[in-house]
From TrEMBL:
One of its GO terms (biological process) is L-arginine biosynthetic process. The gene is argC. InterPro entries: AGPR (IPR050085), AGPR_AS (IPR023013), AGPR_dimerisation_dom (IPR058924), AGPR_type-1 (IPR000706), NAD(P)-bd_dom_sf (IPR036291), Semialdehyde_DH_NAD-bd (IPR000534). This is N-acetyl-gamma-glutamyl-phosphate reductase. Keywords: Amino-acid biosynthesis, Arginine biosynthesis, Cytoplasm, NADP, Oxidoreductase. Residues 13-144 form the Semialdehyde dehydrogenase NAD-binding domain. Catalyzes the NADPH-dependent reduction of N-acetyl-5-glutamyl phosphate to yield N-acetyl-L-glutamate 5-semialdehyde. It comes from Chlorobium luteolum (strain DSM 273 / BCRC 81028 / 2530).
Length: 342
């Protein structure tokens, strides 16, 4: 292993299940250099027996991926698995008292019917973890042993809207939200798909899952309502475009009444004053400003005289939208500096 990437020599041990995907690789990179925890095992079903360096030479890691056979020897487990696979693994880890951070959508939704509608497949009614978005639920995360990491689109959109739904907000009530968000190709995972190849996506952009994207109920749940019985109109158009990483969301909000642009910006700045990774910017954010970081950049871009508000939100989908936020949550659960290793 590259000595420059070696992290702590003592402290809790960490294993990653699903370590060979893009999010798993980012988790590997972050844990290798984390100052407070030690990387123990890397599990990858399809890549078992291969070395990390054969897939990701830049990590400078010569460990071998292993097949997960139900071991519970580590202190902390990150699950970076396809949706539907964590349900079979998490109960045993919970029973063993392990700290678990799940990056899939298996445990995000409280509503069983919504889970089945948007994700497909059955979900146990009691299969719920603490929904772990640090900016909204830091205290709950600190007291949890198992948490569900937010989705990438959901992170960008929820953080872009949360100040409008805060109990302390003096801004007019939200009547509707129209969201258009573009994601980089890595959001689809590492598996090869012709329609996501460079030849298909270079100089191209297209919408998909309009109105039925699986992050929709997660967004509504975090904002205090539901996809089945929403308290405001919400439309979501996800796009995929020719960039590797990043999410860029434009949120067009209609309020019950007009709001001053300076007042709206001040409300956002106050809401995120103690959030180390959410930056309310005075200038228009860009994907390149947050790529390879755990930041979410927000900009209140426009306020119209008839109650319209436009917010732009951007994140790195593999970091703040996945691995980085997962490590942030681990830090909170361990009671250490939230920014450690990030």
């Amino acid at each position: 292993m590259n000595a420059s990437l070696d992290g702590a020599t003592s402290g809790p041990t960490v294993s990653i299940i699903g370590a060979s995907g893009y999010s798993g690789a980012e988790l590997t990179r972050l844990i290798l250099r984390h100052p407070a925890v030690r990387l123990e095992h890397l599990y990858a079903f399809s890549q078992a027996g291969k070395s990390v360096s054969s897939l990701y030479p830049a990590l400078g890691c010569d460990r071998i991926y292993r097949s997960y056979e139900g071991e519970t020897g580590s202190d902390i487990y990150f699950l970076a698995l396809p949706h539907g696979e964590a349900h079979a693994i998490v109960p045993k880890l919970q029973a063993a008292g392990k700290m678990v951070i799940d990056l899939s959508g298996d445990f995000r939704l409280r509503d069983t019917d919504e889970h089945e509608r948007f994700y497909g497949g059955r979900k146990s009614p009691d299969a719920v973890m603490t929904y772990a978005m640090p900016e909204l639920s830091r205290e709950a995360i600190a007291g949890a042993r198992t948490v569900s990491n937010p989705g990438c689109y959901a992170t960008a959109i929820i953080l872009g809207l949360a100040p409008l739904f805060a109990r302390s907000s003096a801004l007019p009530r939200v009547r509707s939200v129209a969201c258009t968000a573009i994601s980089g190709l890595s959001g689809a995972g590492r598996s090869s798909k012709t329609e996501l190849s460079f030849a298909e996506m270079s100089e191209n952009i297209r919408a998909y899952k309009v109105g039925v994207h699986q992050h929709t109920p997660e967004i509504m749940q975090a904002l205090g309502t539901s996809a089945r019985n929403p308290s405001f109109d919400f439309s979501f158009t996800p796009l995929i475009g020719p960039l590797v990483r990043g999410i860029y969301a434009t949120l067009s909000v209609t309020l019950d009444g007009p709001v001053d642009l300076k007042e709206a910006r001040s409300a956002y700045e106050a809401f995120y004053r103690n959030a180390p990774f959410t930056r309310v910017r005075s200038e228009m954010p860009e994907v390149r400003h947050v790529a390879h970081t755990n930041f979410c950049d927000l900009h209140v871009a426009y306020a119209g005289q008839h109650g319209t508000l436009t917010i732009v939100s951007t994140i790195d989908n593999l970091l703040k939208g996945a691995a980085g936020q997962a490590v942030e949550n681990m830090n909170i659960m361990l009671g250490i500096d939230e920014t450690a290793g990030l």
